[in-house]
């Protein structure tokens, strides 16, 4: 295992459940990605290193909202080498807007 330390969401990311009820109008504070896999983070608990957001792990039709531990995402390796990356300079938008942009970039039609 490497010493790779993936950046965490910004300090002002809302805590878990803070955007509850907003659905796809919740604000995305961080974007993690590797290949055609994306994680859009809307809430984060730094003590547990647990986040909530939208995940698409290669199959757009199976993308979903849910919880994840960032320390687990940090351990993902593709072909034993490539690491999950963090989009520096992420511009905050709603989940709806972020997903639409990913759809456009990946060539997915909805």
Strand content: 25-35%
Runs with pLDDT <50, length 5+?
A: none
- Compute the average pLDDT: 91
> Over the alpha carbons, how many angstroms does the gyration radius reach?
13 Å
Number of helices: 2
Topology, number of strands: 9
* Sheet with the most strands: spatial strand order: 5-4-3-2-8
Largest sheet: 5 strands, antiparallel
- Which of globular, elongated, flat, extended, rod-shaped describes the shape? globular
* Helix fraction bin: 10-25%
Distance between the termini: 39 Å
The SSE order reads: EEEEEHEEEEH
Whole-number tally of structural domains:
1
User: How does the helix and strand content classify structurally?
Assistant: alpha+beta
Explain what this protein looks like in three dimensions.
There is one protein chain. The protein has about 110 residues and is α+β, with helices and mostly antiparallel strands. It has one domain (about 25-105). The chain has helices spanning about 70-75, 95-105, and strands at about 25-30, 30-35, 35-45, 50-55, 65-70, 75-80, 80-85, 85, 95. The longest helix is centred in the C-terminal third of the chain and has 12 residues, at about 95-105. The mean pLDDT is about 90.
List the keywords.
alpha+beta; five-stranded antiparallel β-sheet; 2 helices
Strand and helix layout:
Layout: E1 27-28, E2 30-34, E3 37-45, E4 50-57, E5 64-69, H1 70-73, E6 77-78, E7 82-83, E8 85-86, E9 93-94, H2 95-106
Antiparallel strand pairs: 1-9, 2-3, 2-8, 3-4, 4-5, 6-7
Please summarize what this structure is.
The chain is an alpha+beta fold. It contains two helices and nine strands.
């Amino acid at each position: 295992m490497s010493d790779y330390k993936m950046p965490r969401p910004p300090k002002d990311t809302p805590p878990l459940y803070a955007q509850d009820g907003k659905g796809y109008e919740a604000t995305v504070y961080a974007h993690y990605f590797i290949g055609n896999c994306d994680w859009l983070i809307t809430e984060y608990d730094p003590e547990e290193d647990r986040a909530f957001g939208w995940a698409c792990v290669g199959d757009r039709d199976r993308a979903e909202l849910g919880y994840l531990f960032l320390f687990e995402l940090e351990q993902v390796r593709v072909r034993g080498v490539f690491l999950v990356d963090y989009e520096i300079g992420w511009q905050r938008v709603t989940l709806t807007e972020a997903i639409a942009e990913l759809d456009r970039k990946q060539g997915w039609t909805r």
